[in-house]
Amino acid sequence: MSLKTTTHLNFRGQAKQALGFYQSVFGGNIALVTYRDAHAVQLEAEADQILWGQVASSEGFRIMAYDVPASLPHDQGVIPFFVSIRVTDQAELKGYWNGLCDGGVVVADLAPSGWSPLYGMVRDRFGVTWVLDIEVAYGG
């Protein structure tokens, strides 16, 4: 048996733009299904918003997103989650960092930490907080 987890982000009308942005940072293929495509339109103004979307790369990056319809409550809260990116290559990490910082706000500078040779935290232009670090082997 194999198990994979995928972060699924909820937006209010920004899912398509967010997924396009993440594709520009991490690469991969984008798949989008609108409410219109799924014959699930509740409000015509939301028909072209995203019912389900995903970016997936052959390197293992995968994220999903959708637009919460106006008929449902949506409160992103204050940092309700982090999306963690761990890699073994510093150049790769710095590329993702630079991409996510475009239009974002640095929460913790990309620098050595007590648990990783390179760690940083950024809130991207869509309000999603990402933690990026170099993966290291831990005893145990």
Automatic annotation (TrEMBL):
Q: Give the matching InterPro entries.
A: Glyas_Bleomycin-R_OHBP_Dase (IPR029068), PhnB-like (IPR028973)
A Pfam match is 3-dmu-9_3-mt
The PhnB-like domain, residue ranges: 4-130
The record's listing under PANTHER family reads: PROTEIN YJDN, PROTEIN YJDN-RELATED
* Protein known as: Bleomycin resistance protein
Task: Please name the source species.
Answer: Thalassospira marina
